[in-house]
Amino acid sequence: KAGVTQTPRYLIKTRGQQVTLSCSPISGHRSVSWYQQTPGQGLQFLFEYFSETQRNKGNFPGRFSGRQFSNSRSEMNVSTLELGDSALYLCASSPDSGADTQYFGPGTRLTVL
Amino acid sequence: DQQVKQNSPSLSVQEGRISILNCDYTNSMFDYFLWYKKYPAEGPTFLISISSIKDKNEDGRFTVFLNKSAKHLSLHIVPSQPGDSAVYFCAASGGNQFYFGTGTSLTVIP
Question: Is residue A32 within 8 Å of A21, Cβ to Cβ?
Fold first, then answer.
């Protein structure tokens, strides 16, 4: 099976802009979770989608949003970018639940200037 | 508040010796634990898991130990190989989402 894919792999934006990141889960996986990784902070949970519905949400401001399509592909959107949003954004998929073993994509490296 | 902690940011071990990576958690409701390995510019790769009904799980050179009373888990790698050099994350879940530690960078010296 193909793994989790994320596009784009690298992105450079300026403050105030918005960005959309994409994630295609492993075939058959219905749960997609998003994480932000910054140096020294580990992986911070953003949200989880299952069957096109947001099932869990982390402690991030409303500028961070997402959605999931009927084919389980997911997008994450960040509006009004801030310098502190520079990070590696990781997507993970699991068969049914966000509490199943998660399999990660390679991530999207976002740099905000 | 960090519910999963990896207090050692880095660890260096000689090739062939044992690597022990540690992880502590605070939430007694956590019942499923994972270890991931991460190379630079790649996403984390799943290594091994353990549920709270067990205290040990082995997979080849990797063994995870869980001490529920101490809220502590550890990953043992025996023997350590240079290719094991990476950042290791532990993660814990109580059923809704995973909480990750900040990672331990392991360097295996040839």
Answer: no
